[in-house]
């Protein structure tokens, strides 16, 4: 199954440009605002889970963050990000992995996930993700998922929608909610997706 998922996402990134996928953001404004709210040193360890070829790493580097990791199941997506960043790509630790097979070897001050968690649709997948996050996070976690009024499909795959209470409930064993917001994401093809963004503090 993991091999099939990897092939699926590699094919998506090989055949579609950023302007052709719904999750593209020119400026990851909300993600940056949540990260800034944690008031961390520039040496803080930050992992972007399911980061793909997102520009979050570009902005974090520009702001002087020194310890950035981007994880994604698609090697193609990470290669595109490295090519875009050019020499700055050396400032990022790149990990090709299915999040449910990821075995963290360090702890992170920030675990950031925009639009990866909602692709996990079974309790087994969700429990594994949260188990990994509990092991990996000694600080803060921020997740952006489709809200209960957001899409129920993305890139041809079924996703799980979340209310604030549902997301808080899933993460209650290991994390304490700080705050949540909802916002409309305007896709590159001018459609609207309603997202729920929440931040949490590790209770480890």
Structure explained in plain terms:
- Helix content is 30%, strand content 29%.
- It has six helices and nine strands, in the order ααβαβαββαβββαββ.
- The protein has helices spanning 2-15, 29-37, 56-62, 75-85, 123-136, 164-170, and strands at residues 45-49, 67-72, 92-96, 108-114, 137-146, 153-154, 157-158, 175-186, 192-202.
- It has a seven-stranded mixed β-sheet, sandwiched between helices.
- β4 (108-114), α5 (123-136) and β5 (137-146) form a beta-alpha-beta unit.
- The longest helix is centred in the first third of the chain and has 14 residues, at 2-15.
- It is globular, with a radius of gyration of 16 Å.
- It starts with a helix and ends with a strand.
Helix-residue proportion: 25-40%
Low-confidence stretches: none
CATH second-level architecture:
3-Layer(aba) Sandwich
Biggest sheet, open or closed, and with what strands and sense?
A: 7 strands, mixed
Could you report the average pLDDT, rounded to the nearest whole number?
Answer: 93
Q: Can you summarize this structure?
A:
The chain is an alpha/beta fold and 204 residues long.
Structural features:
30% helix; 29% strand; Rossmann fold; 204 residues
What's the arrangement of secondary structure elements?
Blueprint: H1 2-15, H2 29-37, E1 45-49, H3 56-62, E2 67-72, H4 75-85, E3 92-96, E4 108-114, H5 123-136, E5 137-146, E6 153-154, E7 157-158, H6 164-170, E8 175-186, E9 192-202
Parallel strand pairs: 1-2, 1-4, 2-3, 4-5
Antiparallel strand pairs: 5-9, 6-7, 8-9
């Amino acid at each position: 199954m993991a091999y099939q998922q990897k092939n699926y996402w590699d094919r998506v990134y090989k055949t579609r440009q950023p302007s052709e996928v719904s999750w593209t953001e020119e400026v990851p404004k909300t993600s940056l605002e949540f990260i800034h709210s944690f008031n961390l040193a520039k040496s803080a360890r930050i992992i972007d889970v399911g980061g793909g070829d997102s520009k979050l790493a570009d902005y974090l580097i520009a702001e002087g963050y020194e310890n950035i990791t981007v994880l994604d199941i698609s090697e193609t997506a990470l290669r595109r990000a490295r090519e875009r960043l050019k020499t700055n790509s050396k400032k990022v630790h790149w990990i090709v992995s299915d999040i449910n097979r990821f075995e963290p070897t360090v702890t992170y001050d920030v675990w950031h996930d925009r639009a990866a968690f909602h692709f996990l649709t079974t309790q087994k997948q969700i429990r594994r993700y949260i188990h990994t996050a509990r092991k990996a996070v000694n600080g803060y976690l921020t997740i952006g998922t489709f809200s209960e009024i957001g899409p129920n499909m993305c890139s041809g795959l079924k996703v799980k929608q979340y209310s604030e209470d549902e997301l808080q409930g899933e993460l209650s064993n290991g994390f304490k909610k700080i705050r949540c917001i909802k916002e409309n994401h305007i896709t590159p093809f001018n459609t609207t997706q309603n997202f729920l963004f929440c931040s949490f503090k590790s209770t480890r």
